[in-house]
Amino acid sequence: MMSVRRIVTGHDENGKAVVIADGESPNIVRPDNRPGVEINNLWLLKEAPSKPLGEEESVKDVQIGLLPPTNGSVFRVIKFPPEKDWINEVDPEAAKASFASIGAEGASDQDAPPHPLMHKTETVDFAMCVSGEIYLVLDDSEVLMKPGDTCVQRGTNHAWSNRSDEDCYMMFVLVDGTFAE
To answer: Which of 50, 63, 127, 134 is the most exposed place for a label (fewest CB within 10 A)?
Structure first.
């Protein structure tokens, strides 16, 4: 099992670059109906452009859902455990409840998708497989991602499916957006 370490830099009273935080993720979310899934929220930007010399702590003691704030972004690492022992128990209502538990009530709106945890959000998501492997499931196709593989997920319907016997760790930056009209 991999722990997620977060290092944050800042400035001391003389303007010198220093480490202001170094430790495990200060904000871990465990969604309902997703055994073993851990969302390690590492940093939250409330707006763009950001203020690099602003807040020293953006996620500790803050409730963070799936989505970034309006005009903001969120940086996180998600642990996806193997799903084979529980995925068949996730019906459409359980999927909707899982997304609702992380503040994304409308993300899952299909009753019979190719994967029960299909969802889409008004975000651009930058994703990278850090360890393990995972399938990116789309409406009519899927792609196996392995360490070093990246994905720019542009508001499309998708799911992440770990069919292996090992945990998969994925790094994400989600940027707020709107669907084109």
So the answer is: 63
> Which residues touch 121 (CB under 8 Å, ≥6 apart)?
66, 67, 104, 107, 155, 174
Contact indicator for 145, 129 with CB cutoff of 8 Å: yes
The answer on pLDDT for 101 being more than 70 is yes
- The one-letter amino acid at 124: V
Q: 148 and 169 in contact (C-beta within 8 Å)?
A: no
Q: What's this model's pTM, rounded to 2 decimal places?
A: 0.92
Of the candidates 153, 132, 155, 135, the one whose C-alpha atom is nearest the C-alpha of residue 143 is: 135
Q: How far apart are CA 137 and CA 153, in angstroms?
A: 11
Amino acid at 2: M
Q: Is the pLDDT of residue 96 over 70?
A: yes
Q: What is the number of other CB atoms lying within 10 angstroms of the CB of residue 142?
A: 15
SS3 of 159, please? strand
Fold held by 26-176: Jelly Rolls (2.60.120)
Domain boundaries, the chain: 26-176
CA proximity to 27, closest of 93, 82, 102, 97: 102
Q: Of 180, 159, 160, 178, which is closest to residue 67 (Cα–Cα)?
A: 178
